[in-house]
Design a protein that fits this description.
Distance between the termini: 11 Å
Largest sheet: 5 strands, parallel
Structural class: alpha/beta
Order of helices and strands: EHEHHHEHEHEEEHHEH
Number of strands: 8
Strand content: 15-25%
Helix content: 40-55%
Radius of gyration: 16 Å
Bound molecules: BIS(adenosine)-5'-pentaphosphate
Strand order of the largest sheet: 2-3-1-4-8
Number of helices: 9
Shape: globular
Oligomer: single chain
């Protein structure tokens, strides 16, 4: 099954993608994670996108479409792919459709996660992740059982994202409403949109997504 998780920054796309991966063995393709990895490894592309990401603006379509095409070409995701944070523009949505068709695959569903703006800001400002496995935590709603160790891999280092600050979050929300929210109508018109309430607790949102994915 190939699924897009669509929603504003901080909606919980990454959190829910990881739960779907654990349960179904899907592959999570997060363009945000790929871009951050490129920055950490100091590639030319990573250097090129660093300032754009820190501001909260969108990286060019060409770069992110290239990253997704590369991943699809590795053959990963035989059981299905969860697209997390991609597509974010109409051009990316058209490109994804072509990439999948060209590989004899198709998009099965687009799950829109509805979350209000205040919740997004609360969620982003309390977010931290495991430095090794990327498990996502929150200061108030999801702390590791042992504050010194990741629940998933035992790592004792955690990190916070450079773009999780007030200015960047505002720019990211603007980019979402300007560039990404038109995808809701785009996928609705194609009959692929399923919307879930993203305001509940993590497990409740997961249950809502599972039921939205049932035929
Ligand atoms: P990206 O990494 O994709 O960031 P984003 O879309 O802004 O989304 P986030 O990762 O911030 O949030 P999320 O929805 O995954 O929420 P999470 O699960 O972490 O992109 C970063 C940047 O890269 C972009 O700004 C852009 O520059 C560039 N980029 C990436 N893709 C691009 C593309 N396709 N085109 C162009 N540029 C691109 O949850 C957030 C917090 O809330 C966590 O602390 C979590 O524990 C908590 N939480 C989650 N669910 C709940 C819940 N139900 N209740 C309470 N707390 C919850």
């Amino acid at each position: 099954m190939n699924i897009i998780l669509l929603g504003p920054p901080g909606a919980g796309k990454g959190t829910q993608a990881r739960l779907l991966v654990e349960k179904h063995g899907f592959v999570q393709l997060s363009t945000g994670d790929m871009l951050r990895a490129a920055r950490t490894s100091g590639t030319e592309m990573g250097k090129q996108v660093a300032a754009v990401m820190d501001r909260g603006d969108l990286v060019t379509d060409e770069i992110v479409i290239g990253l997704i095409a590369e991943q699809l070409d590795t053959g990963a995701g035989a059981k299905g792919v969860i697209f997390d944070g991609f597509p974010r523009t109409l051009a990316q949505a058209d490109a994804l459709s072509e990439l999948l068709t060209g590989r004899g695959a198709r998009l099965d569903a687009v799950v829109e996660m509805r979350v209000d703006d205040e919740a997004v800001i609360r969620r982003i400002s309390g977010r931290f992740t495991c430095d090794r496995c990327g498990e996502v935590y929150h200061d108030d709603t999801k702390r590791p059982a042992d504050p010194e160790a990741c629940d998933k891999c035992g790592e004792n280092k955690f990190k916070r994202r450079a773009d999780d600050n007030a200015d960047s979050v505002r720019t990211r929300l603007l980019a979402y409403y300007r560039e990404t929210s038109p995808l809701i109508g785009y996928y609705y018109a194609k009959g692929q949109l399923r919307s879930v309430d993203g305001m509940g607790e993590i497990d409740a949102v997961h249950t809502a997504i599972e039921s939205a994915l049932r035929p």
